[in-house]
Structure to design on (118 residues):
């Protein structure tokens, strides 16, 4: 599929797709005319990139993962280690967010009580 269609399917602007390509995160095939051609595997990969970004993985680390992925199965253990480490970071973040949420809930309850009294 062409870049415009790919953009629509991913929900990402064409400029972001070109940025990812410049950074080496994606490498779409080129047709005989030199135009980018994306396929279903590219959709799956870009969705994974977006998931990593949403969970706080820096682009430099995503690039490292992409480079390892391009090297094939010889890098499976290293890629898994990266994801395990990132998963642990996410668990830590969730714990901190839950603690912060509990503090906010207490503050909201305090304000509700104060409003009732006034």
């Amino acid at each position: 599929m062409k870049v415009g269609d790919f953009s629509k399917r991913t929900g990402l602007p064409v400029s972001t797709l070109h940025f990812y390509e410049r950074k080496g995160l994606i490498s779409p095939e080129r047709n005989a005319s030199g135009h980018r051609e994306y396929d279903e595997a590219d959709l799956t990969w870009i969705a994974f990139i977006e998931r990593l970004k949403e969970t706080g993985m820096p682009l430099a680390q995503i690039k490292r993962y992409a480079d390892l992925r391009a090297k094939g199965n010889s890098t499976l253990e290293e890629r898994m280690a990266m994801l395990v480490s990132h998963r642990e970071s996410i668990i830590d973040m969730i714990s901190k967010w839950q603690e912060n949420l509990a503090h906010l809930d207490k503050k909201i309850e305090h304000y509700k009580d104060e409003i009732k009294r006034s």
